[in-house]
Specification:
Blueprint: H1 7-13, H2 16-21, H3 23-39, H4 45-72, H5 80-86
């Protein structure tokens, strides 16, 4: 099943953190790498097809992981105003003063 697929591509496929952080971008990178391996004749058309299917499956997996994390409450949005009410004097990093939340 994975025989003959380049190790560098498999390493990218197995980088779960990168996949969850950017499912679409990582799937695009995986697809581009697969086509590049095909052009270099490192893989044949059957292997290319498998690699593209794995890239899309990895994208769906990562999107599902993202959705589950939001559902479990691992991520949530809080505005800087909410932080100030909860923790007066808290230093908020990553926003421009006067530019919304």
């Amino acid at each position: 099943m994975m025989a003959g697929i380049p190790h560098a591509w498999l390493d990218e496929l197995n980088d779960h953190t990168a996949l969850v952080n950017d499912p679409d971008g990582r799937a695009l990178v995986l697809s581009e790498m697969a086509f590049a391996a095909y052009r270099r004749r490192e893989v044949d058309s059957d292997q290319l097809s498998e690699m593209l299917e794995f890239a899309e499956a990895a994208r769906y997996w990562a999107l599902n992981e993202h959705e589950e994390a939001w559902h479990l409450g691992l991520f949530h949005f809080r505005s800087a105003d909410e932080w100030e009410r909860d923790e007066p004097g808290r230093i908020v990093v990553g926003r421009t003063p006067g530019w919304g939340c």
